[in-house]
Specification:
Structural class: alpha+beta
Shape: globular
Oligomer: single chain
């Protein structure tokens, strides 16, 4: 089941199934506000490290957020394109920044590689639940 805002249902009925699902996922993401997430990054010498207290906010295609990990508290700022490509800059408070580049799978999972001064590793962020008060505007379709 996919949840999308009710005002988009009629417009999407006339589209093909694959295109409808792609647009529905993008529109549902644009509607969400703060979302609790689970995430991790992996680096040689550190292993896989969780991102705790991780929340993302979406306004259109813009992503912002915050969390904490073994390094320090951080903020996130980036973009997700309609094709699912993602770029997020993770800035550790009073420290360095890390570029996260990857994909959004349309089902709540962001994943890819991070890069900082030639070091690289994998990362993943899973959307868990929204703290939005706009739940009344969302309609389930199947």
């Amino acid at each position: 089941m996919l949840a999308i805002p009710a005002k988009f249902v009629e417009r999407n009925r006339s589209l093909g199934f694959a295109e409808q699902n792609r647009i529905s996922r993008i529109q549902a993401t644009q509607k969400m506000s703060e979302i609790q997430c689970a995430g991790w990054w992996q680096q040689s010498g550190y292993g896989q490290q969780p991102m705790r207290q991780l929340c993302l906010n979406f306004t259109g295609n813009t992503i912002t957020g915050q969390g904490i990990d073994v390094i320090a508290p951080f903020t996130l700022a980036g973009q997700v394109r309609e094709d699912g490509a993602v770029e997020i800059l993770k800035h550790y408070i009073r420290r360095h920044s890390v570029l996260y580049v990857g994909q959004y799978d349309g089902e709540g999972l962001f994943y890819g590689h991070w890069d900082i001064q030639g070091q690289r590793g994998e990362w993943s962020i899973k959307l868990l639940r929204s703290n939005s008060t706009e739940a009344d505007d969302i309609q389930e379709i199947g």
